[in-house]
Design a protein that fits this description.
Blueprint lengths: L14 H5 L2 H31 L3 H12 L2 H13 L2 H20 L7 H27 L4 H30 L9 H18 L24 H10 L3 H16 L8 H7 L6 H18 L8 H10 L1 H20 L9
């Protein structure tokens, strides 16, 4: 494993920069916890109405009070993005945890006052979290592509969780159990864990230049056909290949747009991220070829399309492009070996 890739750190963050940092994944955790709390509230409202005789009208009032927090949330989000992102994120997650507990935990029943205050606090915290996370990612100056990929990961996973959480909770709620209110308790714990995650954020988040990152490996020639077949039939080979391909590409065409090898492995578990990863690798190899006065190695559009529908073929083409780039980089006339 080589030293950190020697690429000057600009103030402009790429999506690879964002997704290679703790700060991004902490924001991901905050965002998902906030979205899950909103999703869980629907299942809990129905359950509490049926089991404890709560008037459904009370929950419509809770929803209205929650929505009333949007103006305060705007102010908090403004303060966060202008001056104190870390401190304000800690605050808004605490507000959400406190508000959610006051609405749904039995310790606060049957007080309408506590439920009213809780609904407002919950609304302020949840809307401020949503606005702040979006603004911080957009404000990283990474451009539209960076925002689409980075926020798309947050939104896709949080939305998928929202789709399944209410049904799962409804399946496991047991009105006869002593702790039948456990989903609400678990949600409060999750929100408090998000507070802890926020405490370890970088003070200025993405306003500072992205930190040095990434490792490079000497390119190792591989048969494109073998890489394609192994990725199709050997479990987890794709993870090894992504780790190596990012490190080897960084050796030939160093760029801030490339994920670090370890980040590439982690992000491979995020649904539908492979097309963006492979397209970025091809983009950087093509740029390096252009700098050397060589023809384009492969079409980025073709790689993106094949990654969506026939991933092993895309992997073989990317491997072939890296083999060509490595051969040109070393000015070697020797044939590429098979590994």
């Amino acid at each position: 494993m080589g030293d950190a890739t020697d690429v000057a750190a600009p103030t402009r963050w790429t999506w690879a920069d964002l997704m290679s940092t703790y700060s991004f994944w902490a924001l991901f955790f905050l965002y998902c916890a906030s979205m899950l709390a909103s999703s869980l509230s629907t299942a809990l409202s129905i359950y509490l109405s049926l089991q404890y005789g709560w008037n459904p009208h009370a929950f419509s009032i809770v929803s209205a009070l929650k929505a009333s927090g949007i103006l305060t949330a705007l102010a908090l989000a403004w303060i966060a993005v202008r001056w104190k992102p870390k401190a304000m994120l800690v605050l808004v997650m605490l507000l959400q945890a406190a508000g959610f507990a006051m609405v749904f935990l039995p310790a606060f029943w049957p007080s309408d006052v506590s439920r009213t205050i809780g609904a407002v606090l919950w609304g302020v915290g949840s809307y401020a979290t949503l606005l702040t996370v979006i603004a911080l990612i957009a404000g990283s100056a990474g451009g539209a592509e960076t925002f689409v990929v980075a926020f798309g990961v947050l939104f896709t996973i949080a939305t998928a969780a929202q789709m399944f959480l209410p049904a799962w909770v409804a399946e496991w709620l047991n009105p006869a159990a002593l702790f039948s209110y456990w989903p609400a308790s678990a949600m409060v714990v999750l929100l408090l864990l998000a507070v802890v995650a926020a405490l370890f954020l970088r003070r200025n988040l993405f306003r500072d230049p992205p930190p040095p990152r990434g490792y490079s490996f000497p390119p190792v020639g591989r048969s494109p056909v073998a890489a394609a077949l192994l990725s199709a039939f050997v479990p987890f080979y794709i993870l090894y290949w992504l780790y190596r391909i990012h490190g080897e590409t960084a050796s030939v065409a160093p760029s801030r747009a490339l994920l670090s090898p370890r980040a590439a492995v982690g992000i491979a578990f995020v649904p539908l991220m492979s097309p963006y990863m492979l397209t970025t690798v091809i983009d950087e190899l093509n740029r390096d070829a252009a700098r050397r006065g060589l023809p384009r190695l492969q079409s980025a559009g073709l790689i993106f399309f094949l990654s969506l529908f026939i991933a092993p073929v895309a992997i073989g083409l990317v491997q072939s492009a890296l083999n060509q780039a490595a051969s040109s980089f070393t000015n070697s006339a020797q044939p590429v070996s098979v590994a």
